[in-house]
Request: fold
Amino acid sequence: DFIPPDQITDLTATTGLTTGLVTLKWTSVGDDGMVGTATSYEVQYMPNDGFHTCAVDWGGPDAGIINWGLPVPKIAGTVQTATLTGLIPGYDYLFCIAAIDDGGNYGPPSNDATAIPLAGVPFDTGIYDDRHGGWLYFGNWKLINMPGARNNTLHVSNKMGDYAYFYFTGTQFVL
Reply:
């Protein structure tokens, strides 16, 4: 397989209504240029600091990689989306995407797309357990309601890739 996927040229990044969430949108390319269906996608992200670009910094030391939670490519010309969660609120991100074919060939990195995930609403001073709305859970978390389970508020997950986070503003906290 000597023909890589085409370049995705219409990537956009939209800030979501939830803390740390961004939705990417693009038109799929093919397995060979614009023909067929690619095998997978890879998203890379880096600081949007005016120095980084997808074309120059793809695979560079400042690039983070996302290759899980992305949709399976559809036939070339289909609009696709991916919602990225767990991003740092208020951080200015630059996103890039490339399609990968069945031979492992990467298409060229996409155009630059930028977004700043929303920061959460600060909470007043108080004690908040892990049932509070300020906690966000992604994955298959289970609430344990039994004596000794942190006052019936313990959340557990045994699946790799599940995560929880909270948005904190203030001068001190106990976790």
Q: What stands out?
A: The longest helix spans residues 54-57. The two ends are 52 Å apart (CA to CA). Helices lie at 54-57. The CA atoms of residues 9 and 111 lie 5 Å apart.
